[in-house]
Amino acid sequence: MIPAPDRGEIKMAGLDKRVTSYAQALDGLTDGMTLLVGGFGLCGIPENLIAEVRSRNVQELTVVSNNCGVDDFGLGLLLESRQIRKVVASYVGENDRFEQQVLSGELVVELTPQGTLAEKVRAGGAGIPAFYTATGYGTPVAEGKESRRFGDHHCILETAITGDFALIKGWKADWYGNVIYRHTAQNFNPLMATAGRITVVEVEEIVPPGELPPSAIHTPGIYVDRLIVGRFEKRIEQRTVRKEGAGLC
């Protein structure tokens, strides 16, 4: 194994992505920015970074995420403080406050099919400005969008998504910002990490360079700008258990 460079060499080369506070992690966040936020439901959400956004009281945010948390946790906290102007998401069914703000006209929502949302973010990270998809053709999703036929399929043109900040939750990372996600907490996080102008990752553990197998890396450090260790509540959104004495299906 090639020996890892010492900490001083890493700092001098600008490769050490670690920061020491959440204030430092979100330095430069201002009103009107677009945030790409990883997670699916409450699984793999950057809960401490979201809390820092709330404490800064920045306003008129556009948030791109699979969903918007629940009323009292995750992105739901930013709805509670009314810091979000627009949400681009694929699912919003677990948040009563979200529904109320949409119906009252306080909040703009752009509902996007889940696979299309994932591809819009992936395309943004890959530098692809737009792509055609059959999903949504002939529905309100297609309104105002260019359409084209490919063989037997009618498709609509979807534009890519990028953001000012990407807020990401990882499991383990090294000083360089190479990140591993744990099981289903991977979800939207790797896609979002590629598409942010500034990508901030909070993880449960940071290890020295050379300790993570290269084949295990999900997000290479080239995409990561800032890295911080956090402590996580990890709420369970929907807990389902068998009744006592019930057999397995």
TrEMBL record:
Gene3D superfamilies given in the database record: Glutaconate Coenzyme A-transferase (3.40.1080.10)
- Which GO molecular function annotations are given, in alphabetical order? CoA-transferase activity
Family membership noted in the UniProt record = Belongs to the 3-oxoacid CoA-transferase subunit A family.
Organism's domain of life? Bacteria
Which SMART domains does its entry note? CoA_trans (SM00882)
Name this protein carries in UniProt:
3-oxoacid CoA-transferase subunit A
Enumerate the InterPro entries for this protein: 3-oxoacid_CoA-transf_A, CoA_trans_fam_I, CoA_transf_BS, NagB/RpiA_transferase-like
Q: Which organism was this protein described from?
A: Kosakonia oryzendophytica
Keyword set, alphabetical order = Transferase
